[in-house]
Specification:
The structure holds two protein chains of two kinds. By secondary structure, chain A is α+β, with helices and mostly antiparallel strands. Chain A contains one helix and eleven strands, in the order αβββββββββββ. In chain A, strand 7 and strand 8 form a beta hairpin. The relative contact order of chain A is 0.17. Chain B is globular and about 65 Å long. The longest helix of chain B is centred in the middle third of the chain and has 35 residues.
Chain lengths: 152, 570
């Protein structure tokens, strides 16, 4: 079987390109700790909304999504905090998107989602529900308030 | 070739019914962009709710139109290449099942009892007829595969040393992918959702349902795409005035799709709980595998078009482009195909971004996603479907195209509208604009506390694109039904353009049989999906009751089974 020269070339280029993509992904994963959400076994403890302060710069947030709100709805933290978000849903599927920080999770009944993010700059970060969850979906928003206007 | 009246009648119905429904689908497409841009600050318009409209838009355009067309085009392809019509009784059976299913689901959606979007994620509950309708539509589309497979086996027995025609190979592969992937969604619908929505069972495992849906959900996009690929390989080179650059490249691509279309579904669940990072990464890598046949196709088609331009007397390195039949009335298919392909370049590139594991966190469920998939499903898929529907209808009825000049302009208009729309959506997505959201009520309403002025430019651009596409869509519907209302002018026959191959490689047995590929396909699926399902099983907690779209309190349980009582007493 003979393969046309330009066809051979284009297949080599394709494979090289895909190799480059895979390398970039692994590089970003190691260097910037960019990863998809972590997978935890279900545990009822995470279904009670709260903010835990572990130390000055480390927080845990147990976020519970329901039709049509996030609890807690306002999260106050100081600049430079690292936050572990644990997420679940009381009812239908909801989304949890902090676009400025690339936090992107689904809140699902009977499941716990988790991701970690560091807030280096002061400001108000919108948490937006980005999965359709019924007639009030567009009202579902919470905020992370990083040292602004003053930490409560 | 001449075909019987019955064959014609079924094909015409399979083509015209979804095009008629398309009026609803296209209308709701426009309305999404109107609400989203903040032109309307209300929940509904003309008695149709935003989310109801979004459900209609998704189900009609992405499920009904695509499935009906795939069946019709498959019937036409088989009949044309084997010079023998498929079994009429089975054709009627398949059509009747699909139509009944569509009517059931359409009733549920129009009555406002199934505003759950086309992904119908539980525990949002739809009316049982919505699920049953979807199941009937799918089962109806299984029927022809078994008839075509027996036609193929008979033909192969008589022609063991002849290469299977590429279009036939593509059709069979497409419906095999479809059959395998829809087994999962059939299980989801028939075993998990219908009994739950009827109240026979009280709860459903949401994570399992999502995973089963996406076993089907990504292969679904290849089921949309492969008919377009078949057109690009076997019809486009001929219409352009050239030859298919390589016949073998087409076969290799098709078999690679068979292997990689299904075991990649978890890349839609990167943001989901219950599935480990390892399984997600593995599915991401397999998704790159499915990029290979698309790259091969891009090269082969481009080379075929260059050859066509050369044959038509090119000058200079890029001069071949000038020689292609961009606006020729009797070669109008070229416009539909090339506009689809241009959109698909962007659709493909954004698709690779989406598949790229952690990069997906930037855009998952934002407006970027519809920005991406409209350049695939509403690009080559939609344009291929409508262009080909018109072509087949005109040939088989012997009628002249209504408004032929406008017909050559429609695809370009559509493409320009789509590029503008997708630019707005992609940009908005990068700024965190959510998809599937009635933005006009809150985020795009200056009087609302949630107002986001930074989404005004992006949603306005999308609105502009939406208006242009709506006009193009309406022009097509006028041309299609105008053609139908016309008088018979020419001899009616079933005829498809057939591209010869420039490199017509001799038959390689491996690329002319199914068994080794089917076995490999099943092995890869098991490797990809057993870990995913074990994950879901291990990490899922309690199952969920039924929720309606307008009530945070679940429906009361109806099941008085002694087990469920004892559980609730604890």
């Amino acid at each position: 079987m003979t393969i046309d020269k330009s066809e051979k070339r284009v297949i080599m280029i394709t494979l090289a390109l895909i190799g480059l993509f895979v390398f970039s992904l692994l590089y970003a994963k190691n260097k910037y700790r960019s990863d998809v959400p972590e997978c935890l076994p279900y545990d009822k403890a995470y279904t009670v909304p709260k903010v835990n302060k572990l130390d000055e710069k480390t927080y845990q947030v147990f976020s519970v999504a329901s039709m049509w709100q996030f609890e807690p709805s306002e999260i106050y933290i100081p600049v430079g905090s690292e936050v572990d978000f644990y997420l679940t849903s009381k009812d239908v599927v909801h989304g949890f998107n902090i676009a400025q920080k690339n936090v992107n999770m689904m809140a699902v009944y009977g499941a716990i989602n988790k991701t970690t993010v560091k807030f280096d700059k002061p400001g108000v970060y919108d948490i937006i529900c980005h999965e359709y969850c019924g007639i009030g979906h567009q009202n579902m928003r919470a905020q992370v308030i990083v040292n602004y206007p003053e930490a409560k | 070739m001449q075909v019987t009246k019955t064959f014609k009648r079924i094909i015409f119905l399979e083509l015209a019914i979804p095009v008629a429904l398309l009026t609803l689908g296209v209308y709701h497409g426009l309305m999404q962009t109107v609400y989203r841009a903040g032109v309307l600050h209300q929940t509904s318009f003309a008695k149709l709710d935003y989310y109801q409209g979004l459900t209609l838009h998704g189900v009609i355009n992405a499920i009904v139109l695509t499935t009906f067309f795939a069946v019709a085009f498959g019937n036409v392809t088989m009949a044309f290449y084997f010079k023998k019509e498929p079994n009429k009784k089975l054709m009627w059976l398949s059509f009747a099942l699909m139509l009944t299913g569509t009517l059931m689901a359409a009733w549920a959606m129009l009555a406002g009892k199934a505003s759950v979007l086309y992904t119908f994620y539980p525990p949002l509950k739809a009316h049982p007829l919505f699920y049953l309708g979807a199941a009937l539509l799918i089962v109806g589309s299984w029927v022809p595969l078994f008839d075509w497979a027996s036609m193929y086996r008979k033909w192969k027995k008589e022609n063991p040393e002849v290469k299977t025609p590429l279009a036939v190979l593509g059709t069979l592969i497409n419906f095999i992918i479809w059959f395998v992937c829809t087994l999962a969604v059939a299980y989801e619908v028939l075993v998990l959702l219908i009994p739950w929505s009827m109240g026979w069972t009280d709860t459903v495992n949401v994570n399992l349902a999502r995973t089963l849906f996406w076993f089907f959900g990504h292969a679904l996009v290849y089921f949309w795409l492969l008919p377009a690929y078949i057109m690009f390989y076997t019809i486009l080179p001929k219409v352009a005035g050239g030859k298919l650059y390589s016949d073998l490249a087409g076969r290799i691509s098709l078999f690679l799709f068979l292997l990689f279309s299904i075991p990649v579904g978890v890349h839609h669940q990167y943001s989901d709980p219950t599935i480990t990072q390892g399984v997600k990464f593995f599915h991401g890598m397999l998704t790159y595998g499915v990029a290979i046949p698309s790259f091969i196709t891009a090269f082969t088609i481009a080379a075929s078009l260059e050859y066509a331009g050369t044959k038509r007397g090119r000058k200079g390195l890029f001069g071949w482009m000038k020689k292609l039949p961009w606006f020729e009335e009797n070669k109008f298919l070229f416009g539909y195909f090339i506009c689809g392909l241009i959109l698909f370049v962007f659709g493909g590139v954004t698709g690779i971004i989406n598949a790229s594991y952690s990069l997906n966190s930037v855009i998952h469920n934002t407006a970027w996603m519809p920005g991406h998939f409209h350049m695939t499903v509403a690009g080559p898929v939609f344009l291929g479907i409508v262009g080909m529907s018109l072509y087949i209808y005109a040939k088989m009825s012997g009628k002249k195209i209504f408004l032929p000049k406008i017909n050559t302009i429609i695809p370009y208009m559509w493409m320009i509208g789509m590029l503008i729309f997708s630019f707005g959506m992609s940009w908005g997505g990068l700024r965190g604009e959510p998809r599937r959201t009635n933005l006009g009520l809150t985020y795009l309403n200056p009087d609302n506390i949630q107002y986001r002025s930074d989404w005004v430019p992006t949603t306005t651009i999308a609105l502009l694109g939406g208006i242009i596409m709506f006009l193009a869509g309406m022009f097509f519907i006028i041309v299609f039904f105008g053609t139908m209302l016309g008088k018979k002018k020419e001899e009616a026959e079933l005829e498809l353009p057939v591209s010869e191959a420039y490199h017509d490689e001799k038959r390689i047995p491996l690329f002319d049989k199914f068994k080794p590929w089917l076995v490999t396909m099943i092995i890869i699926i098991l490797f990809a999906y057993i870990p995913a399902l074990l994950n879901v099983n291990k990490n899922s907690g309690p199952k969920s009751p039924r929720y309606n779209i307008n009530n945070p309190v679940p429906e009361a349980s109806t099941n008085s089974h002694p087990d469920s009582k004892s559980v609730s007493l604890k």
